[in-house]
Amino acid sequence: MFEFIIWISLALIAASSLLLMIRLIKGPSVPDRAISLDAIGINLVGITAIMSIVLDTSAFLDIILLIGILAFIGTVSIAKFLEKGEIIENDRNNQ
């Protein structure tokens, strides 16, 4: 029974990722696309965690942390770009 629930949850997260991919492509605005990209990263962490449970290993824990950190950095950089129009600021104008 537990294995059935695991596979159902994996299928639901995969379906959610597919719908988020559609939102990423067709999104009405750029912030909607940024949010869907962040949610895809969260779903990727969930899929990796479920596959770690299915395969009965803890080898994927480092990968889960890496995906989470990269998704967070990507979301912060997209938000900064949407707010200011640039990711890395140049201080040439202040000198």
Largest sheet: none
Compressed to H and E, one letter per element, the order equals HHH
- Cα-atom radius of gyration: 17 Å
Mean pLDDT: 90
Tally of separate domains: 1
Question: How many helices in DSSP terms?
Answer: 3
Tell me the total number of β-strands.
Answer: 0
SS strand fraction: under 5%
Oligomeric state as shown: single chain
Spatial shape: elongated
Distance between the termini: 67 Å
Share of helical residues: over 70%
Structural class: mainly alpha
Spans with pLDDT under 50 lasting ≥5 residues? none
What this model shows, in words?
The protein is mostly helical and 95 residues long. The protein has one domain. The chain contains three helices and no strands. The N and C termini lie far apart (67 Å).
What is the compact description of this entry?
The chain is an all-alpha fold and 95 residues long. The chain has 3 helices and no strands.
